[in-house]
Amino acid sequence: MQQPIPATAPGDEVTPLMLERRARIAALVRQRGAVRVPELAEQFQVSTVTIRTDLAQLEKDGVLLRNRGGAIAATVPSALIAFDQRTSLNQGTKQRIGAAAARLVAPGDSILLDSGTTVVEMVRHLQPVSGLTVVTNALNVALELRAVRDARVLLLGGAMNYETFGTLGPLAEQNLESLVVQKLFLAAETVDLAAGVTDSTVEIAQVKRAMVRSARQVVLLADSSKWERTGFIKVIPLSAIHTVISDTDLPAAVRGALERQGIQVILV
Length: 268
Prior knowledge:
The protein has about 270 residues and is α/β, with parallel strands linked by helices. The chain folds into two domains: about 15-85, Winged helix-like DNA-binding domain superfamily/Winged helix DNA-binding domain (Arc Repressor Mutant, subunit A), CATH 1.10.10.10; about 90-265, Rossmann fold (3-Layer(aba) Sandwich). Helix content is about 40%, strand content about 25%. The protein contains ten helices and 15 strands. Strands 6-5-4-9-12-14-15 form a seven-stranded parallel beta sheet, sandwiched between helices. The radius of gyration is 19 Å and the shape is globular.
């Protein structure tokens, strides 16, 4: 019989890195339906003991159910817990990035907002901007936009993804095909100088690519924790991006490489 594992080992502290790893594990188990401890340990470069501790905490939170050698997905509402965990990560940094992104929006602009916790922070700084047309696939972003005066909000259709609270699939992509917006504010799971923007699922990547095709300018919102990491699916190369907004912990080598490609870099 499997013995219970403490959510946090004696002397361990809950860190942003730990919370991020657990949020990513939760996303993987929802996407795949099941995960195994050895695979997770290799992917995150930690011990199997650490992974089992993570799974124990995620089970306690209702995100998944442990089984022999790994874990299986729990019910859909548990996605809310993982989303709350991601929201709490680097919150101050996300607020600063969101504020900087909002300053790039002018009255009367047409903008496309990706799903993501940093994008939500951006919306909270758009209240003074009038006459906006905003397209988004994110339910939480659309709800935040109710506070933006006289904004025209278009919500993309599609299948609901409870990891991102955004719509995905062919319907969302078809909606985007008929649109041309001035600026896209794009979120990212991971970013690498060689691989570009990457993600963990084909469906998310396809909608992001459709967003890029619909926009005249692409602004990437990605705090420094997202950089120099590579996901499973390539979304777009960095050459498709016009502006990057990140924080001052972004490595100097990364900033230099971006600027040599002609990409504007804004650090907050």
